[in-house]
Amino acid sequence: MAKRGIFSVVSVVAVLCAWFCVSGIPVSKAGDGDAVKLYTTHCKACHGENGKPTELGFGLEARDLTDANWQSKVTDEKIIKQIEDGTPEKMMPFKTKLSKEEINSLVPVVRSFGKK
Ligand code: HEC
User: Fold this and answer.
1) Rounded distance between C-alpha atoms, residue 10 and residue 58, angstroms
2) Residue whose CA is closest, atom 39 of ligand 1?
3) Which of 41, 62, 46, 65 is nearest to 113 (CA)?
């Protein structure tokens, strides 16, 4: 039993390492560095570095976050709610992964994609 525990810890660490290797590309863009890092870690896989859906995101019908029409209509509250609750089978909820402050800090990052 004790051995098993160690194995599962090792595999979790291995998965985390793999994830960070793929997603941990340094970002040097304007805006709040920590929030941009959060975006890179948690959102980029589907929404792309600049808010344009990736192949994975496109397959799930992810919103194009650069869409000016959507940006002009969506409220900050709606963006926060989407990040908190997600959409079943499309986007996972983040309210258990990120703090309220972290979720709030992602709003300006999402907004920055609408500015050209
Ligand atoms: C697994 C892929 C995936 C990840 C990771 C992901 N999203 Fe999404 N996101 C989606 C999909 C798919 C939709 C479209 C959902 C729908 O149509 O209801 C979406 C929709 C959205 C929307 C638009 C909601 C609206 O009003 O239409 C916002 C904003 C958003 N995501 C932000 C984020 C942020 C911020 C993160 C990181 C914390 C994130 N997403 C992570 C797949 C993802």
Assistant:
1) 33
2) 43
3) 65
DSSP string of 3-51, one letter each residue? HHHHHHHHHHHHHHHHHHHHH------SS-HHHHHHHHHHTHHHH-TTS
Q: What is the pTM of this model?
A: 0.79
At residue 115 the predicted structure's pLDDT band, cuts being 50, 70 and 90, is confident
Domains and CATH numbers, the chain: 26-112 (1.10.760.10)
Ligand 1 nearest atom to the CA of residue 42, by list position? 37
Answer yes or no: are the C-beta atoms of 9 and 16 closer than 8 Å.
no
User: Cα of 56 to ligand 1 centre, how many Å?
Assistant: 12
Three-state DSSP class for residue 88: coil
Question: Which band of pLDDT confidence, cut at 50, 70 and 90, is reported for residue 16?
Answer: very low
Q: Which atom of ligand 1 is nearest to the CA of 74?
A: 26
